[in-house]
């Protein structure tokens, strides 16, 4: 009998304690409750919902809160584009200023049979895993694309694929969220203006003689493009041609004179 009473008492004590603590939590929740601006939910609902981070924030929730707090403009949702920017701006009572479109670009032309190999890699199809051997992957050039598809798998928009051993971006699908950059162990992927008509398909900072030994399509820093550009929009920096996008008119003359053919014209479609 005493054993049963002890169990009953224990249950009663636990029940009372639970009720007391529950009441205290409810009271604390009411006292410390912070009202959330209802516009945050409205902005969040207007976004594309990709949670890609292309806006520069951790996700759609963080970006929506930043917009309402006045810490971010309404036009940073790349997947949503102009239509989303207009919706968000209307919620905030702002004008939707057009946001320049950007895309990812892989500055590497060292595909299979072009870039010299350091060793034959037969491990997992993972760029980071391949990097563990020699700290630069199977290709001799430390600035080359490994080409095992980490960026492809990270892209939720289907905007990347591997072509001849190098990652290639589909410019019409890309929203410049740069998840590909985060997935790339070499961090070679760049964010460039969509309207840029020529891009340098190499970022090797090795001297020309060394680049020649390692890749048949690497920039050798010969400076011919720099000397020939009528707008002074391209210069050789750290042994690699670098375009000043603000000065470049897209005339394509640099691509014509490049002896290594690594300056590539880009297809531009009307937006």
Q: Helices and strands in order, then pairings?
A:
Elements: H1 2-31, H2 38-46, H3 60-68, H4 81-92, E1 102-105, H5 127-131, H6 150-154, E2 160-163, E3 166-169, H7 179-183, E4 190-193, E5 198-200, H8 208-214, H9 224-228, E6 234-237, E7 240-243, H10 253-257, E8 263-265
Antiparallel strand pairs: 1-4, 2-3, 5-8, 6-7
Helix pairs in contact: 2-3, 2-4
CATH topology title of the largest domain: Alpha-Beta Plaits
Q: Work out the number of β strands.
A: 8
Structural class: alpha+beta
What is the total number of structural domains? 2
**Largest sheet descriptor:** 2 strands, antiparallel
Q: Major sheet: order of its strands?
A: 1-4
- In angstroms, what separates the terminal alpha carbons? 84 Å
Query: Strand-and-helix sequence, N→C?
Result: HHHHEHHEEHEEHHEEHE
Number of helices: 10
* CA gyration radius, whole angstroms: 27 Å
Question: Oligomeric form of this entry?
Answer: single chain
Name of the CATH class of the largest domain: Alpha Beta
**What is the residue-mean pLDDT, rounded to a whole number?**
90
């Amino acid at each position: 009998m005493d054993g049963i009473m002890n169990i009953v008492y224990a249950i009663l004590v636990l029940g009372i304690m639970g009720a007391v603590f529950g009441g205290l939590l409810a009271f604390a929740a009411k006292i410390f409750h912070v009202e959330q601006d209802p516009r945050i939910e409205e902005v969040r609902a207007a976004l594309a919902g990709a949670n890609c981070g292309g806006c520069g924030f951790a996700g759609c929730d963080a970006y929506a809160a930043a917009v309402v707090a006045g810490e971010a403009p309404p036009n940073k949702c790349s997947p949503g584009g102009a239509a989303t920017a207009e919706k968000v701006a209307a919620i905030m009572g702002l004008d939707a200023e057009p946001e320049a479109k950007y895309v990812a670009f892989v500055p590497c032309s060292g595909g299979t049979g072009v870039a010299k190999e350091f060793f034959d890699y037969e491990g997992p199809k993972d760029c980071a895993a391949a990097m563990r051997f020699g700290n630069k992957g199977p290709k001799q050039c430390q600035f080359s694309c490994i080409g095992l598809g980490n960026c492809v798998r990270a892209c939720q928009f289907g905007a990347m694929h591997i072509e001849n051993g190098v990652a290639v971006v589909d410019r019409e699908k890309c929203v410049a969220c740069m998840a590909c950059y985060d997935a790339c162990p070499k961090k070679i992927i760049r964010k460039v203006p969509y309207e840029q008509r020529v891009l340098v398909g190499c970022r090797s900072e090795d001297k020309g003689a060394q680049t020649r030994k390692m890749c048949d399509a690497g920039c050798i820093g010969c400076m011919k493009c720099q000397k020939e550009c009528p707008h002074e929009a391209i210069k050789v920096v750290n042994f690699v041609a670098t375009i000043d996008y603000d000065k470049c008119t897209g005339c394509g003359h640099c691509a014509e004179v490049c002896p290594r053919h690594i300056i590539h014209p880009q297809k531009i479609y009307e937006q």
